[in-house]
Amino acid sequence: MVEELVVAGLAAASGIAVYTAAAAKVVKQFERGVVFRLGRLHGSVRTPGFTMIVPVVDRLHKVNMQIVTMPVPAQEGITRDNVTVRVDAVVYFRVVEAANALIEVEDYRFAVSQMAQTSLRSIIGKSDLDDLLSNREQLNQGLELMIDSPAMGWGVQIDRVEIKDVSLPEAMKRSMARQAEADRERRARVINADAELQASKKLAQAAGAMSEEPAALQLRLLQTIVAVAAEKNSTLVLPFPVELLRFLERAATPADHRAEAAPRPPQAASPSPPPAVDPAPVPAEEPAPPEHPEERRSALEPGAPGPDRKPPEDASPERHRPPHAA
């Protein structure tokens, strides 16, 4: 009898130990436990620490509440100004409602990843290239709102979204480099022109001050000579007073007026050339008529009269004597 009681006690103790081991669960500090009893949500979310469930009937699912860093694959798209770019980003999110993360969506990580890729392509199509390169803060906020709107129903909160890199074609990079170089050159020219303007104003003020005191110009000339002589060169500087030039100019002006006022001798009128006479037009030569063979033969015979030949004149005067004289 005692042995049976001992065996029964040991069996009960082992059963209690097995039940306790199956029912006892530990939830970590960064986790929350969701219990499903016979497939239905049972009770509230279990907090970190030791908790008990009914074996075989209950199922405990642990949900990580830490912030998850998820890289978004690079998405290729065309911006609003028709430039092809590749943009990748990173999303920081965490679960705020463990029950909804298990009930409302099958896999909240995959759902957030797909939503981030879709939103990133949408942002690329709505933005210009300059906004993607320089105005990323505003784009990050817009991308965060687009992902966070559906994720709130899944019990997920989007903490931050960052655009990491924007890849451009090589031709676009070269064009942007030329544009930046041209902009820098333009600013350099503007600065140089502004400096010239300011220098000209200062020189005008200095010239006005020197014009009031003629000795100041001479002192400035002497200072320039000292500056040139300080260098080791073979340049010879001969100061020439400006007042002497003005005196020579004033002296040459009356002489020019007297030369212009002097009377000029009358000039003989040159005979007018005869009027040009147009040469008479030369008549065109008419083509010669074709020669007859008999005429050619008679022309070749000696003594035969030709077109250019004259009949021989008789030396005796009797042939040319008139008949009444005979």
Class by alpha and beta content: alpha+beta
Straight-line distance between termini: 217 Å
User: Would you list the SSEs in sequence order as H and E?
Assistant: HEEEEEEEHHHHEHHHH
Walk across the major sheet and give the strand order: 3-2-5
**What is the C-alpha radius of gyration, as a whole number of Å?**
60 Å
Q: What is the 3D shape?
A: rod-shaped
| Strand-residue proportion | 15-25%
Number of strands: 8
Mean of residue pLDDT values: 78
**Percent of residues in helical segments?**
40-55%
Number of helices: 9
Largest sheet: 3 strands, antiparallel
Low-confidence stretches: 268-272, 276-284, 297-301, 306-326
Task: Describe, in plain words, how this protein is organized in 3D.
With 326 residues, the chain is α+β, with helices and mostly antiparallel strands. The longest helix has 43 residues, at 170-212. It contains nine helices and eight strands. The strands form three sheets. It has a three-stranded antiparallel sheet with strand order 3-2-5.
Can you summarize this structure?
With 326 residues, this protein is of the alpha+beta class. 48% of the residues lie in helices and 20% in strands.
Write out key terms for the chains shown.
9 helices; about 325 residues; three-stranded antiparallel sheet; disordered C terminus; alpha+beta
